[in-house]
Amino acid sequence: xxxAFIPIFYFSGTGNTWWxxxxxxxxxxxxxxxxxxxxxxQVTDDEAHELIEKAAMVGIGYPxxxxxxxxxxxxxxENLPAVTGQKPMFIYVTQxxxxxxxxxxxxxxxxxxxYQIRWAVHFNMPNNINADLGWIITMILKLFQAKLPxxxxxxxxxxxxxxxNQPWIMGKSSFLSFGWTQRFFFRKGFDSSHKNIWxxxxxxxxSCGRCVRLCPVDNITLVDGLPQFGDQCNICLRCYxxxxxxxxxxxKRPYNPQMFGTQPYQGPVSEFKPEMLIEKK
Length: 281
Ligand SMILES: Cc1cc2nc3c(=O)[nH]c(=O)nc-3n(C[C@H](O)[C@H](O)[C@H](O)COP(=O)(O)O)c2cc1C
Known about the structure:
11 helices, two-stranded antiparallel sheet, Alpha-Beta Plaits, globular, 2 domains, six-stranded parallel β-sheet
C-alpha cells in the first residue's frame, strides 16, 4: 500500500464533497499513500483514464441528491475505463441526513468494469439546500446540523480501513436500506419538476455571469443580460447559493434570509470558493 497512487475523483456542488475528499486524501497521505483529490470538472475523460491506469486504487466522491448521484457523476462513472485485476475502489458520499445505499447503489455498473468496491461510506455534512421548500422539510433539514469534526474522524477511519485493506460498506443491502424509495420519487419528479425550478429576479440581477461560469453542465446562458436556464440542470445549487445579488429564484421564490440567515450555504469552510472546483490548475 505504501506510496500507492490513489486519485480521488469527486464532484462537489457547494464544497462539502471537496472538503471530505481533501480530508480523506490527507489521512491517506499521512499513512504513506500518494492520494490526490481531483474535481471531475478539471479533468477530461482521457486524463482521468490515464490517472486510473497508473493508480493502485481509485476513489470516487459525490453529494447525495435524493439518494441518487448527480447526473454529471453518473456520466463520469459510465465513462470509467474497464480495468483488469479487480482494481480496488472506495466511494464516499456526502449527505445532510440520510441516503440509505447512496454510496453503493451503482455497484453493478462499476463492478462490471472490473473494479472492486471495498469501501462505500456516507459522511453527514451541512445541508446545502436553502430554498423555501415548505416549513416541514425546512424544519427537518434544520434538525440535521452536521459537525465537521465528526466527518473528519470518519475520514481518518476510512483511511485506516483502506491501508489495513479492511472492507467497510454502508447500505450494503439496497433493498433493506430503503435508498431506492427516495431515489424512485426523486427520479420520477426530476424531469417534470426538480430541474426546472429556476428563474431570475430581473430587478436584482446585475448580469455578472457568475452563475453561467459556475454551472457544471453549461446549463445557463445570458440572454439580453439575464440568465436563461436550459434543461440540463443537475440541481447542484451553485447558481442559487453563490449569486452575489441573491437574484436567482427557486420555485419563483427568492432566498429567504429570515429563514436561513444572511446568505445561502457557501461551503463548510470560509476559504472554499466554488471557482476552485472548475478553474484549471
Ligand atoms: C437536490 C438535492 C438533493 C439532496 N438530497 C439529499 C438526500 O436525499 N439526503 C441527504 O441527506 N441530503 C441531501 N441533500 C444534501 C446534500 O447531499 C449535502 O448537503 C451535500 O453534502 C452537498 O455536497 P456538496 O457541498 O459537495 O455539493 C440534497 C441536496 C440537494 C441539492
